[in-house]
Design brief:
Elements: E1 2-12, E2 15-26, E3 30-34, H1 41-48, E4 56-61, E5 64-65, H2 71-77, E6 78-81, H3 93-98, H4 113-126, H5 142-155, E7 160-164, H6 172-188, E8 192-196, H7 200-206, E9 209-214, E10 217-222, H8 224-227, H9 230-237, E11 239-246, E12 249-257
Helix pairs in contact: 4-5
């Protein structure tokens, strides 16, 4: 399976958010989208998820135009994890996770609760949220809610997983554990996984492919070794960068703003 993003252009009123964005992602490939605030990372993920409609361009999955799929068909294929979801949703964690199984129920609305509960039990244990299942969403901390949101995405068993800042609100241990688990699940189940993230260190640690975006335009696409270079990152972020090699991977260490040291 692969996704092809072809010539996307998105506008919010008179402001253009994406400009001729084109790239492709294959199954089992961890693609990390990086760029500064307002670069268009979230808009790109929402457009792929058919939440935002492009003025120009299209998204294809295995040659099928995504915009022609029904909501139920989309629900079986794609899940977008919205980091801004409200904790005021009146449900327990278990009830919230069960809603992710809806696309897999038959058209009459009858579910297979045993199968659904087995999926939820497995994922919740892996993400260490099984003790939260009876809690209400409004009783969760920001970090707990983030883990529940990621769990819900995995419970849906998608073919395409779109994660917007999945490490937000998480301490260092959970950042690494959850990103490790997401990578393992994506590769084992041949999922197309696209992650929008601010943390350059995590992107350099986990990405198979990196998409650099700035001002709504693609700056570079390639492997971490091809894309995570000082000239590209310093131009996009205006930050002095140091690159280290750890266990054969290029790791990005931001140092200081370029303007502070008198460069333009």
């Amino acid at each position: 399976m692969r996704i092809i993003v072809e010539g996307l252009e998105v506008w919010y009123n008179s402001t253009q958010a994406l400009r001729n964005v084109t790239f492709e992602v294959r199954e089992g490939e961890m693609t990390y989208v990086i760029g500064p605030n307002g670069a268009g990372k979230s808009t790109l993920l929402k457009t792929i998820a058919s939440i935002v409609k492009p003025r120009v361009g299209a998204v294809y999955i295995d040659g099928k135009l995504l915009s022609r799929l029904s909501p139920r068909e989309l629900g079986k294929i794609i899940v977008y994890v919205d980091p801004q979801i409200s904790k005021t949703i009146p449900s327990t964690v278990l009830e919230f996770l069960l809603t992710a199984r809806y696309p897999h129920q038959n058209t009459l609305g009858f579910s297979m609760p045993r199968q659904d509960l087995e999926v939820i039990e497995n994922v919740s244990k892996q993400l260490n949220i099984d003790h939260l299942l009876s809690r209400r969403l409004d009783q969760l901390s920001s970090g707990e809610l983030q883990r529940v949101l990621i769990a819900r995405a995995l419970v849906q068993r998608p073919k395409v997983l779109l994660l917007d800042e999945p490490s937000a609100f998480l301490d260092l241990r959970y950042r690494l554990e959850i990103l490790d688990y997401i990578k393992m699940v994506a590769k084992a189940n041949r999922i197309v996984c696209i992650v929008a993230i601010h943390d350059l260190y995590l992107a350099s640690l986990y990405a198979d492919k990196v998409v650099v975006i700035n001002n709504g335009e693609i700056v570079a696409v390639g492997t971490p070794g091809e894309v995570l270079k000082e000239d590209i990152l310093e131009r996009v972020y205006r930050v002095r960068i140091s690159l280290l090699s750890i266990n054969g991977r290029r790791v990005v260490i931001p140092l200081e703003p370029i303007e502070r040291i008198g460069l333009r």
